[in-house]
Amino acid sequence: MMMRASTHFALILCVKIFCVNATVPLFAADLTYEQHIRPIFRAHCFDCHGATEDMEGGLDLRQVRLMRKGGDSGSAIVANRPEDSYLVERIRSGEMPPGDHRISSEEIETISRWIAAGAKTARAESETIGSGLGITPEERDFWSFRPIRRPLVREIDSFPPEARVRTPIDALLQTKFDGAAGEFDVTVSPDADRRTLILRAHFDLIGLPPTRESTQRWIDEKADDWYDRMLSELLDSPHYGERWARHWLDVAGYADSEGYTVTDAERSWAWRYRDWVIASLNRGKPFDQFLIEQLAGDELAGPRTGDLTAEQIDLLTATGFLRMAADGTGSGANHAEGRNQVIVDTLKIVGTSLFGLSLQCAQCHDHRYDPIPQSDYYAIRAVFEPALDWQAWQVPNARRVSLSTAEDREKSAAIEAEAKTIAAAKAEKLAAYMKQALDEEMTKYEEPLRAQLRQAYETVSDKRTEDQKELLAKNPSVNITPGNLYQYIPESKPKLAEFDKQIGEVRTKKPAESFVRALVEPAGHAPETKLFHRGDHRQPKQTVRPAALAVAAPEGKRVEFALNDSSLATTGRRLALARWMTGRENPMLARVIVNRVWMHHFGKGLVATPSDFGKLGARPTHPELLDWLADEFMSTGWNLKRLHRLIMTSTAWRARSDVNSPFRSLRRLEAETIRDRMLHVAGVLDESLFGPPLKIKEDDTGQIIVDGEQSRRSLYVQARRSRPVGMMQSFDAPVMETNCESRSNSTVATQSLMLLNGEFILSCAAKFAERTAEQPPSLTADRLAPLPDLPKTGSPWQYGFGSFDESKNRTDTFTALPHWTGTQWQGSEGLPDGKLGWALLHATGGHPDGAERSVIRRWTATSDGVLTIEGKLSHGSAAGDGVRGRIVSSGTGKLGEWTAHNGSAPTTITGIEVKSGDTVDFLTDCRGSVTSDSFTWPVQLKCSGQRQQTISSVQHFSGPPDSVEEIPGRIVRAWQLAYCREPSDNELLLGVRYIADQIVELGANPQAVPAGRTAVSQAMTNLCQTLLSSNEFLYVE
Amino acid sequence: MESKDSKTMPPTLVSRRGFLNQQAMGVGSLALAWLLQQEDAAAAPKGELKEPPTFDLTPKRPHFAPRAKAMISLFQHGGPSHMDLTDPKPELTKYDGTEYSGKVGYSFVNEASKKLMGTRWKFAPHGQCGTELSELLPETADIVDDICLIRSMHTGANGHEVSIRYFHGGIPGVLGRAHMASWMLYALGSETQDLPAYMVLTDPGGHPVDGVNNWSSGFMPALYQGTVLRPQEPRILNLDPPPHLRGEPQRQNLEFLQTLNREHAKRFPGENDLQARIASYELAARMQTSAREALDISQESKATHSLYGLDDDATREYGTRCLIARRLVERGVRFVQLFLNGQPWDNHSNLGTSLPSICRRTDKPSAALVKDLKQRGMLDEVLVHWGGEIGRLPVTQNQGAPEKHGRDHNGQGFSIWLAGGGVKPGMTFGATDEFGHRAVENVVTPNDYQATLLHLFGLDSNELAFQHNGQKQSLTAGRPARVVSEILS
């Protein structure tokens, strides 16, 4: 933690200095307005002095000639004389810019030096200037706006063998583009070993570790093409789609809740979009198609005529991408602000994921650093407005698309009709009962009162006269209603309920209606988009037409989209945008995508800021490689799986981890992968794909956890914005605000606490430990030879039979009961046993046999101390003559004796001194008769000495001690399962020593062994937990 | 200034890294590394950041010399009624019951009235400074010479969540922002290696309004978020081992784990991440004892217990948390915030009984905290904040019978107080209008408050930046934010 900090900050400082040196020339004479001054003004001044037609103080800073001319206060600059330049004075004094933002002293210095050197421009300025900032050639020439150019790749054969150039990627990485032609660098780390490559490939492509068998299979492969075949197998795995869907869902801002308001309403159908992403990636859908469908699936699907086709459903599901932004309009925020926020967030997701630009920064004013005028932001907004129209808004539920078919509806209608028939029958029956009840009631009255009452009753209540009302009030028992009918005719209630039950049963046969979360543009809807002054929807200005970003096309060749494509029912704007976006002319998309893919393979992109390819973002470390990959990706059909293969077959990817390498350094697994890997190793990972999200809940400590024993992959855990699952959040899984462009990677003590004490890891460790016992490998003698002997047993309890010798005042013989049933000790499988008869012991008690076959529960002290024994001997049958219990110490003899016959006796003894190794026996004999001698005798021992102990005969009841012979093999198996490798001899030794220490510790400390476990099984559980929380487990390699 | 850093830093860095790479990191060498780190700590992040950084809590140098090292915020959810507590308004009393001529924004329109309501409690000057306070705050009156009372707070919005988010995250109403304490951690790191640096003490009655958003690190990594010290056991999640791992079994596990980790790290020389994770296990292990110790108030004297009101049912709970807060900052925790359940200061009705009741619960413990810090010489470096997100209206919220009357929300003007940490003691600052409705003199917004706090911690709110989704974020989000220099000592 601590070391990382200083290197990191040192790095930033170096980068900053580097940038300053690189961008500001040493000689003032090289400073030009366009290259060095305008960016400063753009960031600080143009809002009031250039961007709009209102120039504050009449000063326009867009051209040097206009600065010289100046504003209301005269010339802003005097060439060669910064000290006399009003502009410099105003900035230096802190009066400009107004407010709290300041121009840095370095920037002021640059302005001043530029003026001192004559306030040069790069080229002659035009005599006229329109409105707005426009885009200068310098701005257009920024690396990410330049067309993608495929660099020439040196022949692979032209590199010497030691360069180990395998692919064009390696060739490009080793070519020096700034040096003399033909020069190259050989700085290649050796390849990682085969096992590491297997692990990396599995985590990179499917996000799961290889199984023990597949690790072994690929390690044993003799054929040269093993590596290619392994990649093919992984790329064909259905888990590939799950792994790479997670990356895409991060940028798309996937969530299973609506957010925005405190309610954070659940999003019931978002998961279909998640499944669509998984399936599309698995199918190898070309990535351009993948994006087009997400941006305009509804336009491609066309209008709904009758039932949706499978293809239509698929296309509509794809538009879930545009419904990922938080949307509070269905949960209390259906107002202008709430609606506009949905649009703003959607555009931000589109901007960061597909443009690789902070498009959202141009919402309120021209972008301060990148050439994105505010009008461009609204031109993009105009593309989405027909579907996301804040003035004709649809709340989330209204946007859902029902998947019901005509057949479903027909079936539902038929079922409803059936229900109605039953309801009619019920009504008829009810009427009959009512009449019957009334008739019976009427017999209690004489005429004429009877007729009056009947008439009053049968008059509709609001038509009754005052007299009638009074009459009914006076004779309350006439007021029969369906609600109190049962009081008159008791059997009416169950009879009528029978109808309701039938109706309920019939209705359950209706097909369940399910939905797709989609964005569907209404047909023929083309609202105007207005530019909002300062981003405020209450200040609409000019109408803006849909168009691509101006900077993405050559000067004067801006791509505009039709207002309404007459060949489609919808406006076609999004389809046009999607086609332009995935077209060759757009320089941004392919670079953004290949950079992301690179980032997920190497931990860091060629451009370190994956969602900002603008001025404030990082520059590509290898621009030629980035362009080559982008071009190659497009030229080969936007084939993502091919791109993976291209990258993963490179020497760069196969290189050994090296902290000094710019590409491969050790990476921690993501939150989801950690959880998945734990479940995988525990042998309980449910690998089924797709479906509604796994439920989550708050545990009694207030932490959000996955509900119950749900062991599907983490991708399927419900992603509720306001209820992040504690374990996932702790390991940096995003809690979606809008979207997540790249994850942070924190190392913090709460993670460690979770791995030391958290319930999830403890339960995985227990299952993992059980797995190590399933046919553990047997080790060769030379592997076993150096290992220390393990203590034989961990339990302080033994279970046997024998007798008490009165004369010696000691237990005479103790022979272990030979057979363990899984719950009790006895003579053999069947009872009574030929030799030992009914002798048996279980957790709470047992049954003695005849003389010499008293049953004995024996406890051995592990340290010196003073013992208190509390217990109760009980016998529950009137038959026979009961049982006798004795407590006998090997040190001091009999400590007490009790009998119980159809009753119980407390067996409390205090102040017994014991030495380590002493035994205390709990003998039970049958007295005279062996019949009906079942007894219970739970005891609790409190031993105070060096170590305070409480030992319960019930809780710490144990079966045969686990075989310690298998432990070395189980440790080897644990290593194989957790780390996908064999332990070294030293590690095996460490493991065995650790288990030996644990057995001793746990044997002496029964509280350390939870009920149902033995010292050995608990020691193995602890070992397994340790492996699961170790660095080797948490990192890719 | 940056070039100077870069000249001095790399050599020490290289040598320390070299040193660490050669060592198997035991506890001893870890402590040494920590000390080295303290000596030449990295600088707090500043300006534009190009690299996507990795994050940690190592101590960092502030931008300039700080006045405060730690802060305790006693957050008074709901909107304490300033005209009944801290801001005497004789005119309001004079015109009690008459129609207010000003424009009022109401939250509860159905019960709105324009009838002015004077306070029913007496105000009197206190201390040497003579600041007037209501009789409802007798204990605060006792520390009046140590606090700076700001009477001109203004959020401009009446809603609770809107203003709370403004106070904590820098923009009214916006969720998903980093709490100002997260900013402090990000900028300055942690002074303690044994405890989380940002702790939140919640009320046994439940979470405050807006729940966990109150201590979210928003767009920053989770390591900067508040660690909730729960009002009952387990006070820190996962802190305690399950019973069967307690003591020796877990000690053996950790030793085995760290052996494996060190062997693993040998395969990757120079990988600081691996060393950091080894260290984080050591911190986790230390926390298991140190956090327990920090929370053990039985070590405090009887006098201290009674100072905080622990011998009184009314004040025991809040007093305990105030005392724990002091123990935490004493042990190097950077930021502690206390919350109340729900909104006890939200006195829409029954002002006459509900207001005295919450005052009774909090007045003594709050004052005790300042007194205690002062007597221990800690007040110089520990900043204490007391206040809510809004205040209340000078007009009646009509609830039928007069004794049921209350006051509606008011974000236009209200009071908070600060003490210690470089804030001028014994002063009042700013003023509301004659009825206490709007702040009219020396208006202080939450953004001004934030800029001032950061300043006291040696940080420039204009410079402190965090790169998120390609955008430069700052605590005050580029909104006007002024360091209120008049209240600095």
Task: Report a brief summary of the structure.
Chain A is built from 36 helices and 22 strands.
Overview features:
heterodimer; A: about 1050 residues; alpha+beta; 10-stranded antiparallel beta sheet; 6-stranded antiparallel beta sheet; 36 helices; about 10% strand; globular; disordered N terminus; B: about 500 residues; alpha/beta; 8-stranded mixed beta sheet; two-stranded parallel sheet; 13 helices; 20 strands; about 35% helix
Number of helices of chain B: 13
Q: Find the structural class of chain A using helix and strand composition.
A: alpha+beta
Which class do the helix and strand fractions of chain B yield? alpha/beta
Helix content of chain A: 25-40%
Give the biggest beta sheet of chain A. 10 strands, antiparallel
**N- to C-terminal distance of chain A:** 19 Å
Assign a percent range to the helix content of chain B. 25-40%
Averaging pLDDT over every residue of chain A, what do you get?
A: 88
pLDDT below 50 for ≥5 consecutive residues: which ranges of chain A? 1-22
* Biggest interface found: A-B, 100 and 103 residues
Question: In order across it, which strands form the biggest sheet of chain B?
Answer: 9-8-10-3-11-15-7-16
What low-confidence regions of chain B span 5 or more consecutive residues with pLDDT below 50?
1-40
Q: Roughly how many Å is the radius of gyration of chain B? A: 24 Å
Percentage beta strand of chain B: 15-25%
What is the tally of beta strands of chain A?
A: 22
User: What form of chain B results from the Cα inertia axes?
Assistant: globular
Q: What features would you describe in this structure?
A:
The complex is a heterodimer of chains A (1037) and B (489). With 1037 residues, chain A is of the alpha+beta class. Chain A has 36 helices and 22 strands. In chain A, strands 9, 10, 11, 12, 14, 17, 18, 20, 21 and 22 form a ten-stranded antiparallel β-sheet that branches. In chain A, helix 31 crosses helix 33 (967-979). Chain A is globular and about 125 Å long. The model of chain A is unreliable at 1-22 (pLDDT under 50). Chain B has 489 residues and is α/β, with parallel strands linked by helices. Chain B has 13 helices and 20 strands. Chain B has helices at 2-22, 27-39, 82-85, 90-94, 138-142, 160-169, 180-188, 248-266, 272-295, 302-307, 316-330, 351-375, 446-456, and strands at residues 42-43, 60-61, 70-75, 112-116, 123-126, 131-134, 147-153, 198-201, 227-229, 335-338, 382-387, 391-392, 395-397, 409-410, 414-419, 427-429, 431-432, 439-441, 466-468, 471-473. The two termini of chain B are 26 Å apart. The model of chain B is unreliable at 1-40 (pLDDT under 50). The interface between A and B is large, with 100 and 103 residues.
